[in-house]
Amino acid sequence: MTRLGKSVLTVVVALLAGALIIWWVAPGDDTVDLHAGTTSYSVRLSVTDPAVGTNTVDVEVADLSGTLIAADEVILEPVMVDMGHALTPTALTPTAAKAGQPGHYRAERIDLPMTGPWELTVTIRHRNTTERAVFSLVV
After folding, report:
1. Do 123 and 107 touch, CB atoms closer than 8 A?
2. Which residue in 40, 42, 93, 114 is deepest, having the highest Cβ count within 10 Å?
3. Which InterPro entries does the record match to this protein (predicted)?
């Protein structure tokens, strides 16, 4: 290989390596958006950049016609079935995320202490009924 060819190859490899490092390190919006239903509700659960440690979980609850509802209580319970880890259930806080509409809830400090498959159970208490939606999340 000629001296010029080696120089071009070195520059190309350096550029590719730099682009790969920037792509890997740069923050992104890796939001996991999951949907599940119960007998009476459609439930959407979102986790932005799920990772080991503290995570923020957003939940949206609507009736089957799509109308957001103000539930009496929404609870999140993370369980790692494979390892037998059941974490303390957390009551979600209503948020005014969408111009004051009901049906939006958040938990800002959900700790997922290890990688692997997690089962997130959302319990909805509304008008003397209790229903659960179960989501699978891999961290």
Report:
1. no
2. 42
3. YtkA-like_dom (IPR032693)
Four-CA torsion 92, 93, 97, 102, nearest 10 degrees: 90
Q: In this structure, what token pair is assigned to residue 8?
A: 């071009």
Report the C-alpha dihedral over residues 20, 21, 24, 28, rounded to 10 degrees. Answer: -100
Task: Please say whether the beta carbons of 54 and 109 come within 8 A.
Answer: yes
Helices within the chain (DSSP H only): 3-25
Token digits of residue 37: 């239903």
Helix and strand numbers, DSSP H then E, in the chain: 1, 10
Cα 73 from Cα 36, distance rounded (Å): 18
Tokens standing for 20? 């790969």
Catalogue all structural domains in the chain, each as residue range(s) with its CATH number: 31-138 (2.60.40.1930)
Instruction: Write down the pTM of the prediction.
Output: 0.76
**61 torsion bin: left (phi>0), alpha (psi -120 to 50), beta (else):** beta
